[in-house]
Every structure is written in C-alpha cells, then in structure tokens.
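Dear colleague,

Following up on Tuesday's group meeting, I ran the structure prediction for the two-component complex that the binding team flagged. I've pasted the input sequences exactly as they went in, so you can double-check that nothing got truncated or mislabelled along the way. The structure tokens for the whole assembly follow below. Feel free to forward this to whoever is handling the docking comparison.

Inputs:
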Amino acid sequence: MTTHRSSFSPPPGDPWLTIGEHTFRSRLIVGIEQYDSVSVVRDVLTITGADVFITTVDPDNRRSSLLLSDLDNAIDLDRFVWIGTTSFSRSKDSALRTAAILRDSLGIRILKLDVRGENNVPDNRQTLEAAHELRADGWALMPFILPDVEMAMALQAAGCEALRVMASPVGSGRGIADPGPIQEIIDAASIPVIVEGGLGSAKHVALAMEMGAAATLVNTALVQAKDPMKMALSMRYAATAGRLAYESGPMPEAVAV
Amino acid sequence: MTTHRSSFSPPPGDPWLTIGEHTFRSRLIVGIEQYDSVSVVRDVLTITGADVFITTVDPDNRRSSLLLSDLDNAIDLDRFVWIGTTSFSRSKDSALRTAAILRDSLGIRILKLDVRGENNVPDNRQTLEAAHELRADGWALMPFILPDVEMAMALQAAGCEALRVMASPVGSGRGIADPGPIQEIIDAASIPVIVEGGLGSAKHVALAMEMGAAATLVNTALVQAKDPMKMALSMRYAATAGRLAYESGPMPEAVAV
C-alpha cells in the first residue's frame, strides 16, 4: 500500500524525447510569452512541472516579452531545456531570421518552429520549406502544422525531432475540433506528436493524451482562466491522467474519440 | 515556490458532502463489487484515494461478492464511510429488502439507491417511490437516475442527500452520451450531483467534473482496463484535474461541452 500511495505523486517518467543531452519528461509544455510578470512565469513553470523553457525574439521589432536577465533572477533557468520559438513569424524568412538571432544571441539549437499565416494558423508549405533550410543548418526542429498526415510524414522525413499538430486555432479554447486527422498522424508518425493550439481546459488535454500524444502544449487557457495557477495545476493533472489512461489499455468502447 | 510544489499533491479538500458525522472528500468513488480478490480491492481503494466503501448483498440469493471478514483483514475499513448499495435490485421491493438487510446486519444508514429495470438502466419512477419509503424510514439516500431534471428535483424535494445521474449505460464505457440534461440537473440542483455510468476513461471523468459534478463514480473502466491499477491512478488525477479546471474559471470557449 505504501508503494501505491507514493505513486500518486506524478511519476518522474522516462523521457519522451531526447535531443543530444537534453531530455523532455514533462508531458505538459507551457508557453510563457503572454505573461508580463516574472513571478507569474516562475509560478506557472513550477506548478505545471515544466522542464522546457521557451524563449523568442521578434525579428521585426526585436521585442521580447520578458527580459531574460529578470527571469534569471527569479528562476533557476538552468533546470530547463531551452528551446526557441518563431511564433511571432508570419513568413519563412522571418522564421529563419528569428532562428539566427536565437542561435547567435543565446546559443539555442532546438526550435519550436512556427510559420503562421496572417490568420495565425500554420502555413504548412512555408513551414516545410523552413524546416529543410533549418535542418541543413543543423537545427533540431519541432514544427507546428495543421493536421495533415502527408505534411507530417514529410517533416518526419526531413529529420524533425517531433511534430506539433494544431487541435484548433491558437487561443480559441475550442479543444480538438476534429480528432480524426490528428489520430491519423499519431498513428503514422514514429517521432513524438505534441498536440497544441486551442486546448482550453483539462478535458481537452486528457483527450489529446489518451489519443496517444507524447505531450500537450498549453498557453492561453492558463492566461485567460480566472485563476491561472489553479488551471495550471489542473492541466498538469490532466496530462498525467490522460497519459496513464492511454498506457493502461482502456476498454475499447472508451477509446473512440 | 515550495508552496506550489507541495500543492501538486492532491489537496485534501473540503467535504463535498456531509451526512451526520460522515464526510465525503474524494471526488472519485469506486465500485468494488466486480472484484474477487481482496488485495485488488485494497489496492484500488488506496490508489484512487477513495474514502467511501460500498457494500451490498443480493437480497434474492444472499450473494456478496467478497466476504467482509476477509476484506477487514486486508484493509482498515474504519477509514471509510460505509454506504450500502442496491445495485443488484431490479424492483422497488428488492431494493427495500436489500436496505433492510444492510441496516440490520451492518448498521448501514446511507444508501446508494439503485432500482434498475431489466435493461440495467435506472427505473426513475420506482426509484422515486423507493426513495419516499426509505426517507420515511430515516435513510440517507443517493439515488441513481436517468438524467431527467424533474425527477432530480423530486428526489431533492424528497430529502435525498445527493443525486447520481447516468452518463451512459453502466459498463458501456461510452462516456457522457448527452451532456445537456446532466448539465441542466447540475445547474438546477442544490444538492451534490454525482455523474456515474459508462465513464470509461480519464477524459470522461474530467468532462463530468468540469461540468460541475461534485464527484464521479467509476467501476467497469478499471476492471476492464488491461492495467486496472494504472487506470485507477489515471481516474484519480482526472477527477482532480476536472475539479480544479471547474474551480479555476476556464475561458468561456472551453466551457461548452
């Protein structure tokens, strides 16, 4: 009984992704670029059990949401795997410039690659083009795409480390609008699939994980909850619950989405 | 940060139901009548964090799934709130006889009242009739019904302590087949609403809790999972995740079911 009691604490877990010396264990990744308070970023990262720290620059106006020097005073940033993101980019060229800045200024070599159109949804074609160029330059890539299995396979073939597949538009909170194509990608891919975009609540995260996602990424759902820290904790439980359910081999009737 | 770290352990939580000296805190209730192993019952109760122990007799053949004397050797049964169930009953009279046996043999005064038809779904009319008779006899009642708001209000008016509303047929694993009427009951009732029946996986439990259920009851989902203990742990996380999400005040787009 003692064993079972203690196992209620979230298992540390084997890494679901390893890139060089960097291991990704937490099944929940959080975006932090919407916060303007260092202490809030610290608390969100702590409560969610995050082991990834996402940073970026805006290549066009050199805007950064928070100063890293301030964050570094509040958080032991060395505990995290640092990855960069191009989430401000609206073109391949902008993404490539962002990547170069992140590499040159921070030494980052792992990229959460986003190339979104003006409607803020991924531009799959430009993302694939950017991926080819960045791979040739030695980047480890985690590209964000609309759920299209052919595109997913092309990015896998290009050597990407993981795929990030859109559940519903970023910030929409609408959850997994159409599970079919996402399930198809999870089933077809041999690299980890992260479900991201529009995950608004615990039930969305649990569903994604039960579908076999390696991890989920949340952001706006925390920012817009009346109590962001409580939602952050909820999301951590939900990611663990969903993963455990997936691993437990649920009764077949409960697997359909 | 220390505070937030420690708060990842499930909060003990205020009781969501108090009946006399008995308090219900765990948001997850587990049925145990399908197990034939004492050690499995012990582990399931422990892993799920259950604080309710459900026992029954079959009034027609005096069958009890496990001998209480054996369980008592393996589990400190005094840690639990003991409630009886009439889940074997297929008529009002059978339920009343079961209740009388549970009272006379075990001193139980809290009843998980089930009167199901031959199709194994609740017979709302007979359940209400049984509730009136049992209330007159001093029982604390938690009746199981098909989601019908008028029936829910009638049972509340009859003095029931909590309502148990069917998500989908018991054992089906199909989750919340039609959230609308269940949401209607949760919104209308002033007593706690437990969602039960067909909850097959973590995502179903999270959804029910996000709808505002006070608790969820699971049973077959654990028994039929390939790894019941892993699913039991998943369900515990899912109930907590869903409750926290509900309490956090999610963005409106994520509240719709």
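Chain B has one domain: 21-248.

Cheers,
M.
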